[in-house]
Specification:
Layout (H helix, E strand, L loop, with lengths): L5 E4 L1 E4 L2 E8 L16 H27 L9 H11 L2 H13 L4 H17 L4 H4 L2 H16 L12 E5 L4 H4 L7 E6 L7 H8 L4 E3 L4 H4 L5 E5 L4 E4 L3 H22 L15 E6 L5 H6 L4 E5 L3 H4 L7 H15 L3 E5 L26 H7 L1 H14 L4 E6 L5 H21 L9 E5 L2 H5 L1 H4 L6 E3 L1 H9 L17 H17 L3 E3 L10 H7 L3 E4 L4 H8 L4 H13 L3 H15 L1 H10 L6
Parallel strand pairs: 3-4, 4-5, 5-6, 9-10, 9-16, 10-11, 11-12, 12-13, 13-14, 14-15, 15-16
Antiparallel strand pairs: 1-8, 2-6, 3-7, 7-8
Helix pairs in contact: 1-2, 1-3, 1-6, 2-6, 3-4, 4-6, 13-15, 14-15, 15-16, 21-23, 24-25
């Protein structure tokens, strides 16, 4: 018998508190395939046939699964479309066949080797959102290996509402469950931006991920408490603790209802200072989630995924259709489209670049686009074409010099002239801005402001580069501090430069969506905040409870402090003093936003 109140710790991925019994899903036994060499043309053809049959079966199963989705999962059908596309992606489909023909590998070993290359590619990507898409590729690999082995994929149906415990859950597996069957998810793997986490968030199902050894420590039928606010799991809770969490659950539900009321109200302070709360999105299908939570527009449309999910470079028309869907759905709200922010060595297309020792400091973002101008022009044309279907602005990532911004704007003007000659309509006055993500851009902000129609501060990279911290490195991750005095002063410098030039300044890094930082950011002069869609109601709720003068006072006092510990303590005390009724939940929810 397990001891009462035994804790496990994970990463909060979808907020909420649930009490119930566990259902542990047995994991596929993933043994490394045997490398059995083929010796005759007949054996090679047989293995090719087995692989193609496995692909065909996987495609049939995924299409059938998509067609059978219940209404609550319809908006996530695109996640299965991604996997269907990946089935015949060059680095899996063609590479596996090449290895069978040329290396004389059997189908299982060839597929394993092809998958290893794909995994290495995704793991080398710095952007956590794009990197998180490795889950799709892994699900495709697992499904194909299961088909080759003649095994069925998981059946996730549950007879009664349970807390699902698994090593991992793919989108295909998650969409087989209904909210009436599932109280919450616990997984050993995954992150806050995995597709499974996104599904849980959109259905408002609490989820905790990254719980080490969960499937070993928890058994089917075990009573559990799962806290999606803090990431804590309690095994076999006693009666007193259960009562305590029931009360906490009731309080949170009431609090969540109060916050939700602010979703579709204007983000205006009590002394009528207007702000804009925008959504960060990656796929056109995520627009609905942004609108559901009250987004005033899109502050960051990431554009990398279409380049990663197919065998060829996307055409102008493919890009245009993607952007148009977002722009039309958001109209008349503003959509801010970030140009390609990825290095050439990360494409799943024919581009061939040598792997870099430090991709974060290498040929990526605007540097790559200025080198590969044909790719850049194609994207700019698609963005401009979409601009007639609503309000659009474009921003260039990782600007580190005035010359880069000048060159990007020059190419934008040339593309405009091409469209004019073709007779293709576009918004000739579409704003073009610079992302402030490196210290050099902060220092040059007063010069960049003469070339930019707006600034957008990308704090994820800015903090990392300014503090020389790799937040993915557990040894120094605790030093990644958004309220570091140096970071606050950089934000103030950018805002001051923008104010002199009379251009707007936004923020689209994770700092923008953290409830604890919002008063400081408002006080520093950032009036456009773009964030994970689920963070929007909380952001609006806080803004509607504070005056701009209070926010400016908090920012001034924070800037007088010397150490980040002093700043963090001061801001936490101010939040607790000014918003005591919500601070206990705000502090927990702060860990549940974007990574």
């Amino acid at each position: 018998m397990t001891p009462n109140n035994r804790p496990l710790q994970g990463i909060p991925a979808s907020p909420g508190i649930v009490l119930g019994r566990a259902k542990v899903l047995s994991e596929h036994v993933e043994t490394q395939p045997c490398n059995c060499l083929l010796y005759s043309p007949e054996e090679i053809e047989e293995q090719l046939g087995r692989f193609l049959k496995a692909v065909e079966q996987a495609e049939t199963d995924l299409i059938a699964l998509k067609d059978s989705l219940s209404p609550e999962y319809q908006e996530h059908g695109h996640l299965l479309d991604v996997q269907i596309l990946m089935l015949k992606e060059r680095m899996i489909f063609q590479e596996t066949q090449r290895l069978i023909r040329e290396k004389r590998y059997n189908a299982e070993w060839a597929l394993f080797q092809a998958w290893q290359k794909v995994r290495e590619l995704f793991q080398g990507i710095g952007d956590p959102y794009i990197k998180g898409r490795i889950q799709d590729a892994e699900e495709v690999y697992r499904r194909l290996q299961s088909n080759l082995a003649g095994k069925e994929v998981w059946n996730l149906s549950a007879d009664e509402p349970v807390i699902i415990v698994a090593r991992d859950l793919s989108p295909a597996e998650a969409t087989q469950m209904t909210s009436s069957q599932v109280l919450g998810f616990i997984t050993e793997r995954g992150g806050r931006t995995s597709h499974t986490a996104i599904i849980a968030q959109s259905l408002e199902i609490p989820a905790v991920v990254g719980v080490d050894f969960a499937t070993r420590e928890i058994a089917t039928g075990d009573p559990l408490i799962m806290d999606g606010l803090t990431g804590q799991i309690i095994l076999d809770p006693d009666e007193a603790l259960s009562r305590s969490y029931q009360a906490r659950k009731k309080d949170f539900e009431a609090f969540k209802g109060e916050v939700a009321q602010a979703s579709n109200l204007p983000a205006i302070t009590t002394d009528e200072y207007p702000t804009q709360i925008l959504a960060n999105i990656e796929l056109p299908e995520e627009v609905d989630l942004g609108l559901k939570y009250g987004a005033d527009g899109v502050g960051l449309l990431r554009t990398e995924f279409i380049y990663l999910r197919q065998r060829h470079l996307p055409t102008e028309e493919e890009l245009f259709l993607d952007y148009r869907r977002v722009v039309e759905a958001m109209a008349p709200r503003m959509v801010t489209i970030r140009t390609l922010d990825i290095g050439g060595d990360k494409f799943l297309s024919h581009l061939e670049y040598a792997p870099e020792m430090n991709p974060a400091l290498g040929l990526r973002a605007i540097r790559f686009c200025l080198k590969e101008q044909k790719i850049f022009r194609t994207q700019l044309k698609a963005i401009l074409r979409s601009s007639v279907y609503g309000r659009v602005r474009v921003m260039f990532p990782l600007i580190s010099s005035v010359r880069e911004l000048q060159e990007a704007r020059r190419l934008l003007e040339e593309v405009k002239q091409e469209l004019q000659r073709e007779g293709t309509p576009f918004d000739a006055r579409m704003p073009a801005g610079a992302m402030i993500e490196v210290p050099a851009a902060v220092t040059l902000a007063h010069l960049l402001s003469r070339q930019a129609d707006f600034f957008s501060i990308g704090t994820n990279d800015l903090i990392q580069y300014a503090l020389a911290i790799d937040r993915g490195n557990k040894q120094v991750a605790d030093m990644y501090q958004p309220l570091h005095p140096a970071v606050m002063r950089m934000i103030r410098e950018v805002v001051n430069a923008a104010r002199v030039a009379r251009i707007p300044v936004a923020m689209c890094g994770e700092m923008a969506g953290d409830p604890l930082y919002i008063p400081v950011l408002l006080g520093l002069g950032v009036a456009e905040l773009s964030m994970n869609a689920m963070a929007i109601p909380m952001a609006k709720h806080i803004i509607r409870l504070i005056t701009i003068e209070e926010a400016r006072k908090i920012a001034r006092n924070a800037l007088r402090l010397v150490t980040v510990e002093e700043v963090n303590d001061y801001v936490a005390q101010e939040m607790n003093r000014r918003f005591p009724e919500i601070f206990r939940f705000v502090h927990a929810l702060a860990a549940n936003l974007e990574p």
